[in-house]
Amino acid sequence: MTMTGLDTTPPGGIPHREDNYLTHRRGIASWLFTLDHKRIGVMYLVTVLAAFLLGGIFALLMRTQLLRPEGLLFHMTPDNQDLAVYRPFNQLFTLHGVVMIFLVLIPGTPAALGNFVLPLMLGAKDVAFPRLNLWSYYLFVAGAVLAVVSILVNAVDTGWTFYTPYSTQTSGAVIPLVAGAFVIGFSSIFTGINFIVSIHKLRPAGMKWDRVPLFLWGLYATAVIQVVATPVLGMTLLLLIVERLFHVGIFNSYYGGDPVLFQHFFWFYSHPAVYIMILPAMGVMSEVIATFCRRDIFGYRFVAASSVAIALIGFLVWGHHMFPNGQSGALDAIFSVMTMLVAIPSGVKVWNWLATMYKGSIVLQAPMCYALCFLFLFAIGGLTGLWLASLVTNFHVHDTYFVVAHFHYVMIGGALFMFIGGLHYWWPKITGRMYNETVARIGCLLLFAGFNLTFFPQFIMGTHGMPRRSASYMPMFELYHVLSSEGALLQFLALLLIAGCFVYSLCRGRKAPANPWGGTTLEWACPSPPPHDNFDRPPPVGRPYDRAGIAWNDALGGYERKEKS
Amino acid sequence: MASYSGVEPAAADSSHLGHVVPLGVLAAVWGALVALTVLTVAAAGVDLGNLNLYIALAIAGVKAALVVLYFMHLRYDRPFLLVVFLGCLAFVVLFISLAMTDARAYAPSLVPGQAPSMKDVHTPFGTGD
Amino acid sequence: MTEPAAHAQDPRSDPWHLAHHFTTPRQQFDSGKLGIWLFLATEILLFSGLFCAYAVFRANHPEVFVYAHLYLSKPLGALNTLILIFSSFTMASAVRAAQLGQTRWLVRLLAVTLVCAGAFLCVKFIEYKAKWEEGLLTGARYRPEAPPPGADVPKEAAIPRARPAPKPAPVDGLLVERSTIAPAAVGPSGLAPAWLAGEPAHPPLEWRGPEPYNVQVFFSFYFVMTGLHGIHVLGGMAAIGWVLVRARRGEFGPQYFSPVDFTGLYWHLVDLIWIFLFPLLYLIT
């Protein structure tokens, strides 16, 4: 045994302990009132996945409707020629958007994976404010419940963007839904505060800022956005509620108000919100690529700086959602230029990942498969974003399926693929079980195929003029819609396969070693699953992707880091 | 000692957790705030056209600075907290200035007194009431 | 296998207030401070939305603001400002007392802060009640009984809505906000309590002309901004009350005073927001 004093790897490797955070205390109360970030992360994960199922069902219903030009589920009949027959479709796309954005993508990687992994990566025992963390979770659940209530009462049909004046006048239950989003906003803010303070104050000695893992840089940038942007959403939603209740007139021109002001308020949050969704996913990318290419990340400082740059520049581009909506010409120009600038740090990251892969020893396990899919899909999504940034082309494709395809490529192809990839990557750590690699890879492939089948045709029909949020369409678009709907079905089956793979692993998966992938960051230095207190004492800190000493150990069935004696 | 990277060794002593602001300083700041309040009310009584708004905001800014620096003892705290506060203000300025730029851009097309008032409007959802 | 835990301090000798995931009280205090400042930043950004909407509307419809603010009582607004500034002073002194271990002063100063907060809300209530009685509400409920003091609104000007006949105004005390029914040429009788009397009998007229359109928008801003601020005052009172209870139990001293400190920071922010609300709503020229 080496006597370096801070060596946490005993001979024989880190034992799989029976007393871990899952078994530490039992009973439902020990989960409901837990202050353990790992349990809170698991609860978030379960809730997020349930919401994902709900949002996915809405999507499948929409794609079913769009199988026929006149609509398959809701269509006009000879005795009912009222346009209101399509209202359920409006409700579907509103709820799909609200659920997927506020209940799945915004909390997804930061709250479900980040809560679990962040303290472990810092070698800490918990986040800075564990009670606030639990409050975050309960606010999230409360907001979700309010949203479900609104769905049951009278589902909203304004679109997830709640544009005035329709949102102030529609009969849908706007107030519960918007109140739910307001509450979830506070959940997001508290998570952001927790992460910023944790990363600032709970780093171990030796982890200076240039040794912080890139997933934490991503979470830090995300947290800054959460703290700065979400309050403005809170104010926007509050004003919308007040406007509906008391007709104050701030957004309604009949009362002397300004509807475009609502859009400024809304997008000041909602554009940075999309960076909340993608930055953690990019952080996961860095981790996965470094581990599965067996190399130090190329250009660590550039990747870290680009996370912060995306967060900051992301606040300067919100008007690109409003180019044709009555915004002044001067602002159109400013926002167009800034939007093109925000693509640069994302490009920096993609090049750095590619450079890391070059001459690396790539191992195509499931997380790496998802990472490769990310590179391809995010590149497409990002580049089509430039087409939307340019004013001339934007006016042509604004509010068409081109925009829908663009944001699904970045949100699903980018954020969701790496959420699932990250889930595969940290699954052994969270559950202490391995999953079946072959089934997982097949799931990834099917999801990739289904995703492209769904959304690539949408780019084409968008440029041909197919408007978004439309329950019926002209027959010339039928082929694209059918392909899209079939792709949606394939995605659903792929996700079922992936879910089945995980469920099977929970029941029958082999026990996971502490470090199944050869990761170099600190979360791999504790057992899988981690004990209640994470580490007996702070683990030694080196450069985050330093592979010195990482070697496979047959006896453990996993990797270990051997200190030089 | 298991320390963390953000701490200076000298400040690790837990018995001096925060600088104590002298009572005289607090009282002086309070006096200044009261005086500035009187000043701002008096200034509002004098008609200087557009300048009135800027003077009022400037006085409010000075009052705010006094509260932040002394009552909230940001003057004696870690510099990073000042970065947090000023950063937040930077975003507020960004938001307000860009929104106002947009609003001013269409201001010339507003005709004073031409916006419909409440009762005169009939909308598909009823009268503007 | 390994030596016992490398804590410099045996966990059993850690102070009672030190949470298990922090190594030193300094680390815990610094973390809390950073956390509360981040929260204050979010509160500032929350109100910034309102200030932005205010800025946009005032830039495009200045006449609404100049006219409607005359309905507000400058003396009451100034009084509220002074009350809040004083409460900030007592709160900062309370934090100082906690740092020095002066528990009795801490309790007294916290109590005074609480009383000031209550006084602020009482004055607000008086103002709101007057608005209600004069029909100065938001949106469709804006039905003023009379033009504001200091405005010369010609009787024959077309005013966009019919007004009910004004009720006679009962006088029930000094701090009652009322607008006069008499024509403005006589000058406002105002609502100044006796000790503020001494204003000139005929103050300059601040508005000449018909009532502008959409005056109710001003009151939308007034109620939403001061209402949200009032909710924050209530929250602050709850927090101060809780800290007061703990202070009476003797929980705070030089080693541990962060709840007092952080509540104080929140309270100062509430004061800060009012420092900006006051000139923007009450002192428009």
Low-confidence stretches of chain A: 1-12
Number of helices of chain A: 15
Alpha plus pi helix count of chain B: 3
Strand content of chain B: under 5%
Q: State the secondary-structure class of chain B.
A: mainly alpha
Uncertain runs of chain B:
1-15, 116-129
- Helix-strand topology string of chain A: HHHHHHHHHHHHHHHEE
Shape verdict of chain B? flat
Per CATH, which architecture of chain A?
A: Up-down Bundle
Strand order of the biggest β-sheet of chain B: 1-2
What does this structure look like?
The complex is a heterotrimer of chains A (565), B (129) and C (285). Chain A has 565 residues and is mainly α. Chain A is built from 15 helices and two strands. In chain A, strands 1-2 form a two-stranded antiparallel ribbon. In chain A, α10 (329-357) packs antiparallel against α11 (366-389). The longest helix of chain A is centred in the first third of the chain and has 35 residues, at 87-121. Among the domains of chain B are: 22-72; 79-104. Chain B contains three helices and two strands, in the order αααββ. Chain B has helices at 23-45, 51-71, 79-106, and strands at residues 122-123, 126-127. In chain B, strands 1-2 form a two-stranded antiparallel ribbon. With 285 residues, chain C is an all-alpha fold. Helix content of chain C is 55%, strand content 1%. Chain C has helices at 25-60, 62-68, 74-99, 103-133, 216-248, 258-282, and strands spanning 151-152, 207-208. In chain C, strands 1-2 form a two-stranded parallel sheet. Chains in contact: A-B, A-C, B-C. The interface between A and B is medium-sized, with 34 and 25 residues.
Secondary structure layout:
The complex is a heterotrimer of chains A (565), B (129) and C (285).
Chain A: H1 28-32, H2 37-65, H3 87-121, H4 130-154, H5 166-169, H6 174-201, H7 214-246, H8 259-292, H9 300-313, H10 329-357, H11 366-389, H12 391-397, H13 401-431, H14 437-463, H15 478-508, E1 550-553, E2 558-561
Antiparallel strand pairs in A: 1-2
Chain B: H1 23-45, H2 51-71, H3 79-106, E1 122-123, E2 126-127
Antiparallel strand pairs in B: 1-2
Chain C: H1 25-60, H2 62-68, H3 74-99, H4 103-133, E1 151-152, E2 207-208, H5 216-248, H6 258-282
Parallel strand pairs in C: 1-2
